[in-house]
Amino acid sequence: MTKKIYYIFTLIGSLLLSSCDSYLDIQPVGQVIPNTLAEYRALFTTAYNTALNDRGICEIRTDIATILQSDATSKNSLGDVEKWNDVNPNASTRQFGWAAYYTNIYYANAIIDKKDEISEGSQEDINQLVGEAYLMRAYMHFILVNLYGQPYTAAGALETKAVPLKLNTDLEEIPSRNTVKEIYTSILSDIETARKLINKKEWEVQYSYRFSTLSVDAMESRVYLYMGEWGKSYESSERVLAGKSTLVNLNNEGDKLPNEFTSVEMITAYEIFPNSDYAGSLLLYPAFLQEYEEGKDLRPNKYYQANKNGDYTSIKSGESRFKCTFRTGEFYLNSAEAAAHLNKLPEARSRLLKLVENRYTPEGYEQKKNEINAMSQEKLITEILKERARELAFEGHRWFDLRRTTRPEIKKEIEDVTYTLVQDDSRYTLRIPQDAIDANPGLLN
């Protein structure tokens, strides 16, 4: 396999090569070439099944998570990730993903390219699948640019090189990196195209990993939030909440956790953060526990459990039932943050308090309500960001939230040694994985 092909297919293996040779105009012996809607749907299900754990692993680079030092396997694999040692890490250090995202982009491009040739399906269902492909392509590029590109809101970031845009299935193309601005422009274009095609408002529970009409608004809300486009993010967030606004009330015994795929909050149950390989070795960083108000906030007892050593692990991760890409809790926070920046303080307070009401005891909520109602714009924005950290911890948001906002200094005490990520540290942007660079040295340019 040439280095050109290796760029996309490092992790695809025999499954994709046997399933998708039709896109190279090769008819493999004994293999079925996708032609019908059912066959293309089955093909795209493979993309939905691709494990994407990087957002979850990034939690250990933040102030909310650490690794269990007594677990030698995780320590060898993730120790340097937590310490931001990206230049000369241990040889056994887990590399962040690259090929998996481009594999999914290839699946999406293959469906987009063949959209007019798909047979044996209604136009509505074909449009739905093609729309999902556009949204998948947008989402994969969005994750990639937020792992390996400068934060959109950082000074001068828009013209900096990030990752390659891949908008076709040409395996002979030697990719070069596009700018942050070019990637976001493509993401927004794909979202708009998806909006015109996706028509499924809600999937049955067993198919809740698939994108829906609400997923389009949800993704747009998040993308504009990362861009600091407050008005557009607010409008998208409100469209999400107009279509689905239910929250889990943690005061009700027996209710599911908000990020369970069968939860009333679920919009799209695609990703899992982190997977079972690492979940047991990720601990709540001790200082972060103090961010929850003891006796008032219900989440410490609902979201975490103490082990025999008194360390806390996340309950809401590590199992397949905790698949979650978009849920309503996030969009109360997105709406509140965007509204606060727009100086729509009553709207911001209303959205924030609705979430708080479902996460605090009744007595704790009344006290918190009085505090929030008295906050200035600046303090309210700070409180919303703190609430994001408390609510979305261990769901793959914290690292990206730190990047898109202030990129603050973080200090961690690990085995009696202090490690520091300074304000605006260059390590807030990950290095492109070495195997991708080895395959295509042009990625360094």
Quick recap:
The protein is mainly alpha-helical and 445 residues long. It has helices at residues 3-9, 13-19, 37-48, 54-57, 72-82, 99-113, 123-148, 180-197, 213-227, 230-243, 276-279, 299-303, 328-341, 345-357, 362-373, 377-392, 398-404, 434-439, and strands at residues 65-67, 266-268, 282-284, 304-306, 312-314, 326-327, 410-414, 417-421.
Q: Count the helices. How many?
A: 18
Structural class: mainly alpha
Mean pLDDT figure: 91
**How are the strands ordered across the major sheet?**
1-3
Report, as a whole number of angstroms, the end-to-end distance: 23 Å
Kindly provide the radius of gyration, computed on alpha-carbon positions and rounded to a whole number of angstroms: 22 Å
Q: In total, how many beta strands? A: 8
List its salient traits.
single chain; two-stranded antiparallel sheet; disordered N terminus; mainly alpha; 46% helix; 445 residues
